[in-house]
Amino acid sequence: MTYGHGDDTYRYGDQIKINFSSNIYQRADLSELKQYLATRLDAIGNYPEPEPRALEALIAEKLEISPDMVMVTNGANEAIYLIAQLYRHWASVIPQPTYNEYADACRMFGHTISYDRNDELNILPEDRIYWLCNPDNPTGNVLLKSLITHIIRKHPRYLHVIDQSYANYTLQPMLQPKELLDCYNVMIIQSLSKKYCVPGLRLGYLTASPIIIERLRDIRQPWTVNALAIEAGKWLVEHDPKVLPDLNEYLEEAQRLKQALAEIEGLMVMDTQTHYMLVNIDWATSLELKNWLIENHGILIRDASNFHSLDDHCFRVASQTPEENDALISAIKAYREEKQ
Q1: Which residues of 71-80 are buried (b: 16+ CB within 10 A; e: fewer)?
Q2: In whole angstroms, what is the distance from residue 217 CA to residue 23 CA?
Q3: Cα–chain center distance at 30
Q4: Over the stretch 284-303, which tens digit does the pLDDT of each residue have?
Q5: Helix, strand or coil for residue 80?
Q6: Do 258 and 277 form a contact (C-beta atoms < 8 A)?
Q7: Structure pTM?
Q8: Over the chain, what is the mean pLDDT?
């Protein structure tokens, strides 16, 4: 799904004034990180570590787990594709709607894919992976930590991949690797790119049992994480800068946006426990709305029609400032009036 993600601002040059299509906070102050990286530019003259073990050790220390349980990856996506490759030809259960890369990776490596949790128990082989995005993308739904823990412990025969890339954008409790040290059937994906608002650096990490991590290391290419990304990752983990806004206020504004969108005739907004939300529009297609907003207001939304199980009337937006949210609401209302 290379060309199906949000934040496709590169397609539109300088047309975009407000970006609602990316789930990553748009106004992070990265000045300190940039200043630090400016002092580390000599790193590009040498190869980085084939595997970023120094950064993995820092992350492990913060998580209070062993370094051999951590693998730093080139964004969360590398972790997803490595898992699919390691367990090629297994069965994968991928409840919908959710992030498309799980299914894309599984198809690449010959998995049997089920999108339905209800009937696969009697259909699929026991060599099986459950993929759960939590918080889910694109819905913003969050599963209870106690429920996920129960599922993992109740089904030790099956592997569970829990993608917590947006864990820092919800107030709901998330799984902690140190709480599952006795579970060998769980892999947790985290995203430094999203936590620290640096998606261009491509930084994620995976925690799992040492046996799984060792097997993943055996199949990964060397040098997938570049030198500047490693330097940035070490600085971010050590300093843990606060780049996200106050989460209570941020999510409160997201709920205001949700309510305002729901009040527009013909829009249905799904419940969300994060700052982003999935919307269904019945008087235009999502692509029509997206193109109109770009051409008339310089506003970019995420056309969600390419998510499995969603149609061409679904779009996703991530809450921005109150003023920008108001601009989106006004623009959609104007398009609604134009269509009447």
Answers
A1: bbbbbbbbbb
A2: 30
A3: 20
A4: 999 999 999 999 999 999 99
A5: helix
A6: yes
A7: 0.95
A8: 95
